[in-house]
Amino acid sequence: MIRHIDFLAQLYRVWGAVFAIVGAAALALTGGAAAIARVSGPVATGSDVAAGVTAVAMGTLAVVALIWAALHTWVGRALAGYGPRARLLALGLAIGNLPLLPFGTALGGYALWVLLHNEGRQVFLPHPPPPSTPA
Q: Is residue 65 within 8 Å of 23, Cβ to Cβ?
């Protein structure tokens, strides 16, 4: 099961990188829409309002995507340490990924299977220290 958890950690990092790219693209589109909103040209009067609304919407999308990317990257690294808190955060993100078709659904389902499986749970349990031998 360790192999599945390590693979899941890699998938979380890749998913974080994908969302970082989406966030960067949305930031670029936000800048373009904001520039259009500030410049008044020969276009009809309502275009500056529409560009402003687009800038706000794209900016919000960019912030959400960058936060989602940071969370996935952090949880991907934390899963490699097999801490119980990392497992709970990964489960929460897995549920959030389920509606994101198609890759998010596959990632969420795989994460739920790996992290809720009995062998997967055992990996994240705290292990008692080994018994010391008298010298």
A: yes
As a whole number of angstroms, the distance between CA 86 and CA 24 comes to 26
* 66-103 residue pLDDT tens: 999 999 999 999 998 888 899 999 999 999 999 999 99
37: which 2 tokens?
Answer: 């909103």
Dihedral of the alpha carbons of 77, 71, 95, 21, in degrees to the nearest 10? -100
Tell me how far apart the alpha carbons of residues 112 and 93 are, in angstroms, rounded to a whole number.
Answer: 10
Domain ranges of the chain: 2-124
The C-alpha atoms of residue 91 and residue 87 are separated, in whole angstroms, by 6
Q: Which pair of structure tokens corresponds to residue 3?
A: 């192999």
Burial of 91 (0-12, 13-18, 19+ CB in 10 A): middle
Look at residue 91 in the predicted model and tell me its pLDDT.
95
